Every structure is written in C-alpha cells, then in structure tokens.
Amino acid sequence: MQDKEMNQTMKTLLEHRTVRRYSEREIEEPILLQILTAAIRGSTTGNIQPYSIIITRDAEMKAKIAPFHFDQKPVLEAPLILTFCVDFNRFIQWCRQRNTDFDGFNNMQCFTWGVIDAVIATQNACIAAESFGLGICYLGTVTYNAKELGEIYQLPKHVVPVTCITVGYPAENPPLTDRLPLDAVIHQEVYRNYSSDNIADFYAEKENSDMTKRLLEENQLENLAQIFTQKRYTKTDNEYFAKRFMDFVNEQHFLIENS
User: Fold this and answer.
1) What are the φ and ψ backbone dihedral angles of 137, each rounded to 5 degrees?
2) How far apart, in whole angstroms, are the C-alpha atoms of residue 61 and residue 38?
3) What are phi and psi of 136, to 5 degrees?
4) Which of 15, 21, 22, 52 would bridge with 172, disulfide CB 3.0–4.6 Å?
5) What does the DSSP 8-state code read for residue 3?
6) Which whole-number Å values give the CA distances from 7 to 10, 11, 18, 143, in the listed order?
C-alpha cells in the first residue's frame, strides 16, 4: 500500500513497534486524558465495561511491582505504566445496590468477557498513545504474578490484572518486528488447514532472519520452533504460571462453581 493511500490512523497502526527505552520527559495530562478516554471508548460486552485501569507513576510503586515483572527495565524507567484488570466488582456493587441477583457473573464466561474487553481497552490506549508520538511496550508478566500484583494494587474480589503497558516518549527507534504474511492468518469463509509447503513458506522469513541465526547459535538448537518450545515458553513454565494464574482467578471469586 502506497503512503498516499493511507490515512494517519493506518500509518500509526502499521508503524507500531515495541519501545523499551524512554526519555525522562513526562506525559502531559491532557494527552494522558485522551489516551484513557480512547481506552474506554473501545467495544465492550453489553456495554458493561468489566475492566479497570490502574495508573502507576510513583517511583516507589514501580519499585514494588518491578520484581513481579522480572525487573524489566521499562517498568522502572517508563514515566507511566497502565495495568488493565478484569473488574466485576464495580458491576456487582451496582447490582447489590439495585437489589438484583449477580450470581450469574461468577463464572468463566464472564471472566472471558472481562479479559476480551480489557485487552480491547488496552489496544485502544496503545494506538492513542502512538498517535501522540509515544512508545509502548506490552508486559506479558502480569498473568505470571497476578496474585502478587493484586496484593500490591489492593485488588478486591472480582478484580484480576490481565495485561499491562509501559508508556513514554521513546529514547530509541527500534526496527519493525517481522510478522507472518497476511495469507498465513486469513481464511475465506471456512478454515483452510495448512500444508507442509504452506508452513515452510509462511515461516521462511522468520526462520532465515539474522536474529534467528544468532539465537540458534547461542542456544545450540536446530530451528526457531525449538527456541519457542524449549527455551522461551517451556511446558514446565507454562503449566506452572497457568496454575498460579487460575488459582488467583478462583480466589477472586470467578470460578466459584469449580472451587
């Protein structure tokens, strides 16, 4: 697509990159307000908006949460951290005050609504932030240590953190990250399964990149798939963090029928 055919929104979307180093410049309050407003304008299940956003700017608070984000530098260096939580606490309090039963909201279906809506709000915030020249970085560590983060954030029952972004003015200009070609993820009318040739074609760019070659040499492995399954996301780690997360979801009264 030629630049002249793209509007500014498309340019912002297509130029997304993960920024992990930030300048010390603070984010102006009017800009933050617009980012947050964009977040809550995202689509939501039944217009319930079952999520909340926790803003972290205080250095002491960053120091408290940093160990539970594996001490990633962006947590300490970014001027702003936004943590997005599934939140049915607000809705349930409303139901109590309006004398109606809320037992139907203690289940995986509603928790899934909250996760989807929280992520939609997060992505809206990301796009809004990038439209102002800010950089963002998703932190996947939230679900690894949701219980500990929940304690620090003093989350009541029916509230669970699910994702988080660091936000700030970039102090770096990282390259765009490779993506699978469009044909790899698009299916017309029905799902089209993949042939061996499809898989080889779709992953060729990733597998032949200089970064992959470096990773294979460093880890003494044969291919990129082994990097993902044997180094980055092992069965042991996945099962351990999944159990920790679902135990906390249970503690927060989402899966009461299974507890």
Assistant:
1) -145, 120
2) 25
3) -135, 160
4) 21
5) G
6) 5, 6, 22, 35
DSSP secondary structure string for all residues of 75-139: HHHSSEEEEEEEE-HHHHHHHHHTT---GGGSSHHHHHHHHHHHHHHHHHHHHHHHHTT-EEEE-
Q: How do residues 163-213 score in pLDDT, each as one tens digit?
A: 999 999 999 999 999 999 999 999 999 999 999 999 999 999 999 999 999
Amino acid at 107: N
Among 3.40.50.620, 3.40.50.720, 3.40.50.12370, 3.40.109.10, name the CATH number for the domain at 13-173.
Answer: 3.40.109.10
Tokens describing residue 138? 């998703």
Q: What is the spatial distance between Cα 119 and Cα 224, in angstroms, rounded to a whole number?
A: 28
- Averaged pLDDT, 101-120: 92
